[in-house]
Amino acid sequence: MEKEKVERVNSGIPGLDELIEGGFVKNSVNLIAGASGTCKTMFGCQFLWNGLQKGEKGVYVTLEQSAEDIMKDMLTFGWDFSSYIKKGRCKICEVTPGDVDELKTFIFSEVKRLDAELVIHRFVLDSLSLAAMGWKEKPEEIFKLRTKVFGLLKSLKTLNLTSLVIAEIPSGEQSLGRLGFEEFIVDSVILLKVLPVDIPMRTLQIVKMRRTKHNMQVHPFEVTSKGIFITKMKKKEYL
Q1: For 77-91, 100-114, 132-146, 179-193, which range has the lowest pLDDT when averaged over its residues?
Q2: 75 burial via Cβ count (<10 Å: 0-12, 13-18, 19+)
Q3: Which residues, at least 6 apart from 153, have a Cβ–Cβ distance to it below 8 Å?
Q4: Residue 235: pLDDT over 50
Q5: What pLDDT, in 10s, does the model give residues 16-29?
Q6: Assigned domain for 179 exists
Q7: How many structural domains comprise the chain?
Q8: Core-most of 10, 23, 74, 176, by most CB within 10 Å?
């Protein structure tokens, strides 16, 4: 039987797409996980910026850092999101939701406000883990919370979005997020780290990606004047 062709969305990260068969699966939800200082926000913004350069639309929802600060930080790399916001092609908005349902309502509202036809291509949520710390659901109701978060992520696909969901990993934790289940309810997981060596090194690893024959190696990456760039390594067989 001939293999079904999977539509891909470029990541915008030089060196990454060749490791994941050309990009993220279209209309998928992808977890970008890492501790503080691993460039998670930059990764999300670079993904969104790449789409804008291709004529796509995009929404970035931040639940911690202010939208203004994010836009100012990204100007360092020449990414002037304000020009696309004025053209109605992009939104970077901030919110502090009380629970999962409030966040879902906000996302639907902002997406539809930008594009009533729901043909937006890219979406970034920054960050699911930090927001959950203040939600009304109690720790003993973790199953209920998991069900609601799963429903939220599933709903992103109904909006025709290829999404990045950022997750904060607390120092010393083994799980890929504060909730303890984020990695199980997404289509892919990309882990970002800073290795504590003599000269600190940032690395990226594709932990999982559905419908994708992906590379499992740990890859160093650099932050240049144009954003994240994965350092070229000797090509090996995909696992």
Answers
A1: 132-146
A2: exposed
A3: 29, 163, 165, 185, 186
A4: no
A5: 999 999 999 999 99
A6: yes
A7: 1
A8: 176
